[in-house]
Specification:
mainly alpha; two-stranded antiparallel ribbon; single chain; 88 residues; 2 strands
């Protein structure tokens, strides 16, 4: 939400009073909605869901590189005193 408000593509209100004031402003200045639509058009990604799905499938199809640190298993492996825990 902060990204949208920082680009001027959305409004943020926290109280009902702010909401009423904002709606009055929009009613008084209808070009505000046009400005929001223009600002939103600069950051829109209409194919975002498809792009994310394709990238996920590409990663799932790729064979894992077992030299990559992300594939090392570290569950319950720790050392204390220079010996594995099951030997102590």
């Amino acid at each position: 939400m902060s990204m949208l408000t920082s680009y001027g593509a959305a409004f943020h209100v926290t109280t009902s009073r702010e909401l009423v004031d904002l709606l009055r402003q929009i009613n008084h200045y209808p070009e505000t909605t046009s400005a929001i639509l223009v600002n939103a058009s600069f950051i829109r990604r209409p194919r975002a869901a498809i792009d994310i799905a394709k990238a996920t499938l590409d990663l799932a199809k790729r064979a894992p590189d077992h030299l990559d640190r992300r594939y090392k298993k570290h569950f319950m492996r720790f050392y204390f005193g220079g010996k594995p825990a099951h030997i102590r």
